[in-house]
Specification:
This protein is an alpha/beta fold and 645 residues long. It has 22 helices and 23 strands. It folds into 3 domains: 129 residues, no CATH class; 114 residues, NAD(P)-binding Rossmann-like Domain (Rossmann fold, 3-Layer(aba) Sandwich), CATH 3.40.50.720; 348 residues, Rossmann fold, CATH 3.40.50.720. The longest helix is centred in the N-terminal third of the chain and has 31 residues.
């Protein structure tokens, strides 16, 4: 059983009792040293000096907070308080000797007493501190701090206060500070880390470099990846300054540090064109992308931001978050942005048109969509209703209300789709492309990008959970690759692309975001395992910690994703945004396809739905092992009419 901790009051009582012993003893020893003999006295004057000086000193110690400080975490302030308390105690002794005229106590005693009392009172506390430190160090995790700058030094102080970690070394690339000792911890060069891990028993490396570039951080992490340590990081400097995080809050290495790129400064003119002083609306405002769009939009001061969301909880969550952000923004920038949260479905054209008209919406970011490939694959009719007809209804309502700009959030899965979700998004793109030809006042455009880190259903949080559970980490195929982008970066580029679309008189632009280099998912899994301090368990390393298992491609899943259908692509004024020229169905053809698709969905005829999708100019080529709508399958089973599909 764990030892029971003493209560705070009992600990304080023990310290007071000890000081009531130390102080008279210090005075007695001071007199003995002065006379060179052991003093013995029964005179009342002498006893009064002993009793009153000790009692008054305890009162002073109480006022100075010596008994409130936690001895095991004693720091500089506590040491100063002890010195100050003993100094006042020596003055009390001198005063008592002067007024009582105690003949057996020389006038020089306060100076000798000061040193002895400091040794007893301060030394006893230091001994307790050493005792606790020796106990704590036995169980503390041994860590190295990568970065000996201000952040690294603050991290060291925070770690010492926490009592859970013991910093064994600083690691820094700066040759000038090699070998220095900072707050008792020596600075080493990075190439020494391998030997330090074994020599000092280091189990974790903490990255304390909040201001270095993404490129530098990736290089450092790549070097650490091969070492048998768990790599963590302190929060970024912006979060520390803003109060969102504390420096002692250690985190797993952000996957952005492995995959991201150095940020390109946003074009503020592009941000303001569709947002500043305008009425802006985000559909699907509670989703991963929609909520980040909202966070970015309020920074650029719209007159009003309207949130449309079908999920009551998601709407409540983002509304509360934005209200707090707006309160801070109003205090710092004196802006007044009206926030309106509305429940509703993008399939309800009448409600949408009423909202657009009543509030005078000028810019719409259409993020409401079903995006999970396996789920849409098994709920085909609902996927089509929401992704295709939801986009159609929203676009028609925008036309009727003469909305200025309508931006569709699309996906790389719309390019030569092998699944229903991607096909619905390509169909939705074609709806806007066709409407753009006939529209005079509303400018339609769409922004296509790949996987977003940290979004719901993302592979990264899945891998993190599986690693914490001890594995296995599941990857669908050994050769599967994906493009990745952070949520804030994707949202910023979407907002800027929307302005580029609004400036085109014809409209109908398909914007493609530069996603950087594709990432092999199996390699990503290995990196995350290594950076968590584990080894991959496989045929080459059967004694490893966590295994990677390959589950096979899911229905409709590709080995790789593409962003462009053809080669006809042009640059824009933004280095990360390209404009693609892609073919689309003419309005008469599109209207006929939509009519047939609506009729097939109303009849819940999934076979017919798939035939229409295959016959549309979306590039849809389903897998051989394509799954079908779950409800439709059950209905056919009950009707005894199983389809061999």
């Amino acid at each position: 059983m764990p030892k029971k901790e003493l209560s705070t009051h009992l600990k304080q009582l023990i310290l007071i009792t000890a000081d009531l012993i130390w102080l008279p003893l210090a005075l007695w020893l001071a007199i003995a040293l002065r006379w060179g003999d052991l003093p013995y006295t029964t005179e009342l004057k002498d006893l009064l000096v002993y009793a009153f000086s000790a009692s008054l000193s305890i009162i002073v110690f109480l006022r100075l907070g010596l008994y409130r400080a936690v001895v095991r975490f004693m720091g500089t302030e506590a040491i100063i308080a002890v010195v100050k308390g003993i100094s006042i105690s020596a003055l009390i002794v001198g005063t008592m000797v002067f007024f009582t005229r105690a003949e057996n106590i020389p006038r020089s005693i306060p100076f000798i007493y000061w040193g002895i009392a400091l040794f007893f009172v301060g030394g006893s506390r230091f001994a307790i501190w050493l005792y606790y430190q020796s106990i704590l160090k036995k169980d503390n995790e041994k860590v190295a701090i990568y970065g000996a700058g201000d952040a690294g030094r603050q991290s060291l102080n925070a770690l010492r206060q926490s009592g859970e970690y013991e910093a064994m070394a600083f690691i820094d690339d700066d040759r000038e500070i090699k070998g220095r000792v900072i707050n008792g911890v020596q600075v080493y060069r990075p190439h020494h880390l391998d030997s330090l891990i074994e020599k000092k028993g280091i189990s974790q490396v903490l990255l304390a470099m909040p201001s270095v570039s993404a490129h530098q951080k990736r290089n450092i992490i790549a070097k650490l990846e091969v070492l048998p340590v768990h790599v963590k990081t302190i929060p970024v400097l912006a979060d520390i300054v803003s109060g969102k995080a504390k420096i002692e809050e250690l985190r797993e290495v952000d996957i952005e540090d492995l995959l991201g790129r150095d940020a390109v400064a946003p074009d503020h003119q592009l941000f303001e064109q569709c947002i500043k002083n305008k009425v802006v609306m985000v559909t699907g405002a509670g989703g991963s992308i929609g909520s980040e769009l909202c966070r970015q939009i309020i920074k650029h001061q719209p007159r009003q931001l309207i949130l449309l969301e079908i999920s009551e909880y998601a709407l409540y969550s983002i509304e509360q978050e934005l209200k707090k952000a707006l309160s801070k923004l109003k205090l710092s920038a004196d802006v007044d942005i009206q926030l309106t949260a509305l429940l509703g479905s993008v399939q309800d054209k009448k409600r949408l048109q009423s909202i657009f008209t009543v509030y005078g919406v000028q810019t719409i970011y259409h993020a409401a969509a079903y995006k999970h490939v396996p789920i849409v694959e098994e709920n085909i009719v609902e996927g089509i209703r929401n992704n295709i007809f939801g986009t159609l209804r929203a676009a028609e309502a925008a036309l009727a209300a003469e909305v200025e700009t309508f931006v569709l959030i699309s996906t790389d899965k719309a390019v030569r789709p092998t699944n229903v979700m991607g096909t619905t998004k390509r169909f939705a793109e074609q709806v806007l492309q066709a409407l753009a030809v006939e529209s005079e006042k509303t400018r339609f455009c769409m922004v296509r990008f790949g996987n977003v880190l940290g979004s719901s259903g993302s592979v990264v949080p899945l891998f993190n959970r599986q690693i914490k559970q001890g594995g296995p980490v599941t990857v669908t195929h050994v050769n599967i690759i994906r493009y990745f982008m952070t949520i804030p970066e994707a949202a910023q580029l979407v907002l800027q692309a929307g302005s580029l679309g609004a400036s085109n008189e014809r409209g109908g632009d398909v914007f493609v975001l530069d996603m950087g280099e594709p990432v092999k998912i199996a390699d990503l899994a290995k990196k995350m395992i290594h950076l968590s301090g584990y080894e991959v368990k496989d045929d080459n390393n059967p004694q490893g910690d966590i295994e990677i298992t390959y589950t096979g491609l899911r229905p409709g899943e590709k080995l790789y994703e593409e962003l462009l259908i053809g080669d006809n692509v042009a640059d824009t004024q933004h280095p990360r945004i390209m404009r693609a020229e892609e073919k689309f169905m003419a309005m008469p053809v599109l209207e006929e396809k939509l009519r047939l698709l609506d009729e097939a969905c109303n009849d819940f005829n999934v076979c017919w739905v798939r035939e229409i999708l295959l016959d549309s100019e979306t590039g849809y080529v389903p897998d051989k092992e394509q799954s079908v709508d779950l409800l439709w399958c059950e209905l056919n089973k009950k009707n005894g009419n199983l389809l061999n599909n």
